[in-house]
Amino acid sequence: MRVIIRYILSAIFFSSAITKLIDFTDTAIYFASTIAVPLYVFKFLLTVTIGVEFLVSMGLITNLYRKLYFYYTTMIIIIMFLLFSIVLTFEKKDNCGCYGTLITISPLYAVIKNSLLLGALSVLRIWPNSHFFIISNIIRKC
Predict the structure, then answer these.
(1) Residue 118 CB partners (closer than 8 Å, separation 6+)
(2) 68 lies in which domain range?
(3) pLDDT over 90, % of the chain
(4) Is residue 67 within 8 Å of residue 103, measured between CB atoms?
(5) For residue 124, which of 83, 72, 88, 46 has the smallest C-alpha distance?
(6) b or e along 92-128 (b: 16 or more beta carbons within 10 Å of the residue's beta carbon)?
(7) What is residue 82's DSSP assignment?
(8) pTM over 0.85
(9) What's the start-to-end Cα distance of the chain, in Å?
(10) By CB count within 10 A, which of 7, 29, 39, 82 is most buried?
(11) Secondary structure letter of residue 46 according to DSSP
């Protein structure tokens, strides 16, 4: 079950990075106009975001996700995306930009998606240490 959750989370981060990369210029223009920052600044920020999404995706597939710093870094990234989606929801935008401008997702769905991502990441972190997991392993061995 943990492996499935890891791969699903990894696929979400990977697909988000790929779609932003495919439609890089339009995504940068969309966000620069939404946030009112110069285009060159947002191109840099978008490049960093895509790189971090690729790293998170690869970290979830490898054993890096078990490291505590990786967990907290990923949690901070998801919370930042969640807050940004909430802001876009109140501004009545029609695209959150989670997948660039290639795939349009409403900010409300992005809030739901990011909340589910936080929950899934928490399950990954808590599951092996929970009493339920320990008790179920003891029962299987009996």
Answers:
(1) 75, 78, 79, 82
(2) 2-141
(3) 10
(4) no
(5) 72
(6) ebebbbbbbbeeebbbeebbebbeebbebbeebbeee
(7) H
(8) no
(9) 21
(10) 82
(11) H
